[in-house]
Amino acid sequence: MVEIAVLLKQVPDTTARITVSGDKVDEDAITSWVTSPYDEYALEAALQHKEVAGGSITAITLGPARADKVLKDAAALGVEQLVRVWQDGWEPLDSIQVQAALAVAVQASGAEYVYCGKQAADTNQGSTGPGVAEIIGAPCIVEITDFDVSGPTFTRSSATGSEKVTVAAPAVLTFSKTTTELRRPNVRGIMMAKRAQIELVGGEVGTTNVSVVRHASPAQKPPGKTFEGADSVPEVVGLLRDEAKVI
Amino acid sequence: MDITIIAESRSGELHPVTRQLVGAATTLGASTTVLCPGGVGADEAATILGVGKVLSVTGDCFSSYDGGAWSEALDAAAGSGVLIGAATSKGRDVCSRIAARRGIPVIQDVTALSPGLNVTHPIYSGKAMQDLSVSGDCVLTLRANTFPPAGDGGSADTATVQQSGDVRIAVQEAIAKASERIDVADADIIISGGRGMGDPANFSHLNAIADQIGAAVGASRAAVDTWEDIPHSMQVGQTGKTVNPSLYIAVGISGAIQHLAGMRTSKYIVAINKDPEAPIFKIADYGIVSTWEEALPILAEELGKLS
């Protein structure tokens, strides 16, 4: 039997338009929120791990009420416990505040293995997995590309190719894209998820020495030049050499 | 302000990004100490202009990779203040853990830095930029190819610190790379193919051009998902690698938002696509409306003339 925690983050859909108004990204204008793609690879691996070893999974998210959706979606796939970490007035938290709040929930879950994505699709940071690992005193295998739950063993890239590694629990595992996409829920799962209870956890996160000054849209590149037909290739190579100076 | 830089290494030598970290630290007008994990690249680091001191951190833990062990050793060797690493896979891992050990924030993938401390980094895969102000100690990782590299001419003192950490990740089996090609995450020039290549065997044309100019070969998610022969390690984009080369050549790639998220900050982008309406042309510096079958042989010939 194995106790597993999965950290899931709700992020804007990849195709969502991000608009900045009043020096701040306008989150209200984002209409489509999804589970961060790398977290989905982690969740699928966790489900397979549980299937082989037995036990249960706790899904943990940090976010406002809308983030309940990622927990319910996980419940529809067979995740037993759902925890949302949040307290009004928290935003914006810095990395160490996020990690500390999540670490409390992870430890309360009694998890031996903590699965999460290598980074979230909104902040693109990659700090949470290793940071939580440090706080709970666990090793962390980062950017896993393949796994074998029977060991369990995990594959990560190395300077000479890739390597299969093992680690003793408790451990944190961060996932890159693997070969296994997240399964779809069945009707029974969706019905069960509707009744699933979400535990709300808040608490003290301390102060931060980071303040957000402003958000801005990225600088627009000047429009490029478009050429018709393969005959233009020599001209483009010339421009790369003389104008761009990159070859 | 004291700044400690964690040197990045590659194949037993100093990774070029290390000079960029020093260059960025110099703009803060700070005294800079460079830590070399496992002592790799310490001699070269001492010759970089702007480096005040080099510390070789040597310990058994550096013979394999365990971010927990590395950060334990490096944290013990590093002074307080601002710690700077590279926004690479290892750099992000080690810097996150050192920050957590010290109970201070980490800000990853920084693209601009000024005294204060003011920090800029992309969010939402580059669809917006975030400016932060930090008071007090923090850990930063910097995006490669964004800050000007520091030159030669330094003569810093070098010292060795014996310090290891507790290794808990065990390597069971090493699997050799399928090819000796440069990784897209490491390359200064990338040529990538999409589903428009028609067949994975046609990537041989991209390989040939890559060999000519020392480039890495990448692929779109569509290509990786469609063809088993195109491994995920080649994928550039949201669920693949984020790259920032000087030159990115996209061949038969339409330019789905997932792909653009991983390569839009490339310094120069060339797109070759037969569809003039392909979104990739919107972000290309030089777009060529042509089939790859017609364009690539001419490209190979023209590049051949350069050398």
Summarize the structure in words:
The complex is a heterodimer of chains A (247) and B (307). Chain A contains 6 helices and 15 strands. Chain A is of the alpha/beta class. In chain A, a hairpin with a 4-residue loop joins strand 9 and strand 10. In chain A, helix 2 crosses helix 5. Chain A is globular and about 65 Å long. Chain B is built from 9 helices and 18 strands. In chain B, helix 2 links the parallel strand 4 and strand 5. Chain B is globular and about 55 Å long. Classes of the chains: A alpha/beta (247), B alpha/beta (307). The interface between A and B is large, with 84 and 89 residues.
Quick structural overview:
With 247 residues, chain A is α/β, with parallel strands linked by helices.
SSE blueprint:
The complex is a heterodimer of chains A (247) and B (307).
Chain A: E1 2-7, E2 10-12, E3 20-21, E4 24-25, E5 33-35, H1 37-53, E6 55-62, H2 68-75, E7 81-85, H3 95-109, E8 113-117, H4 128-136, E9 140-148, E10 153-158, E11 161-167, E12 171-175, H5 187-195, E13 198-201, E14 210-216, E15 225-228, H6 233-242
Parallel strand pairs in A: 1-6, 1-8, 6-7, 7-13, 8-12, 9-12
Antiparallel strand pairs in A: 2-5, 3-4, 9-10, 10-11
Chain B: E1 2-6, E2 9-10, E3 13-14, H1 17-27, E4 31-37, H2 42-45, E5 51-58, H3 67-77, E6 82-86, H4 89-102, E7 106-110, E8 112-114, E9 118-123, E10 128-134, E11 138-142, E12 157-162, E13 169-176, E14 189-193, H5 203-213, E15 216-219, H6 221-226, E16 247-251, H7 257-263, E17 268-273, H8 280-283, E18 286-289, H9 292-306
Parallel strand pairs in B: 1-4, 1-6, 4-5, 5-12, 6-11, 7-11, 14-15, 14-16, 16-17, 17-18
Antiparallel strand pairs in B: 2-3, 8-9, 9-10
Helix pairs in contact in B: 3-4, 5-9
Question: What's the average pLDDT of chain B?
Answer: 95
What is the average per-residue confidence, as pLDDT of chain A, rounded to a whole number?
A: 95
Structural class of chain B: alpha/beta
**Beta-strand percent range of chain A:** 25-35%
What's the helix-strand series of chain B? EEEHEHEHEHEEEEEEEEHEHEHEHEH
Q: Name the largest protein-protein interface in this structure.
A: A-B, 84 and 89 residues
Q: What portion of the residues of chain B fall into strands of 2 or more residues?
A: 25-35%
SS elements, strand count of chain A: 15
